[in-house]
Amino acid sequence: MKMTVSRPIVYVAAAAATIAVLVIARPSMNRAANPAPQSSNSAAGTTGPLPDVPVVDLNLDRLKTAGRELGESERDPFRFRPKAPPPVQRVQQPPPVFVPQQPVGPPPVPQIPLRVYGTYSVGGKWVAAFRDERGNTFNGREGDILEGRYRLVRITETSVDLEYIDGRGRQTLRVTGQ
What we know:
The protein is an alpha+beta fold and 178 residues long. Helix content is 15%, strand content 23%. The protein contains 1 helix and 7 strands, in the order H-E-E-E-E-E-E-E. The protein has one helix spanning 7-33, and strands spanning 114-122, 125-132, 137-141, 145-146, 150-155, 159-164, 170-174. The strands form 2 sheets. A 4-stranded antiparallel β-sheet has the order 4-5-6-7, with no helix packed on it. A 3-stranded antiparallel β-sheet has the order 1-2-3, with no helix packed on it. A hairpin with a 2-residue loop joins strand 1 (114-122) and strand 2. The two termini are 98 Å apart.
């Protein structure tokens, strides 16, 4: 009759046997590594010989300070002196502050957000086609007001001059064709 035992059971049994051997052998290993000190207790009846300890000469002559007399001290705890003045502090100059130069003249005019994508002539008068940043398109002639903010001053084949209605400034826009 053949007996079959599963492998995990064999592994568990081998591990348990190894642990048991280690637990049983541990106290004997500790005693071998650390022998118990022998006590000189006369009640126990075991008195051993005392170890030989060498006697060391102390050389007390070396402690004498022959020829090393203390000199006169300048410190006298019973004589009072005025407190020394505090050291003079140098006044430190603050580092120079960088102040950027202010631009001379009027502030820069904000960019007009229109694009000119074409000009054409109708009856001898120039007309320009514009597109704003939202994608809206519109046409204008010289003197027209665009978007309620810009006046169309001059139109040529390659450029258009616009100015702000409130007089803040003037810009020339090139025809981009896009």
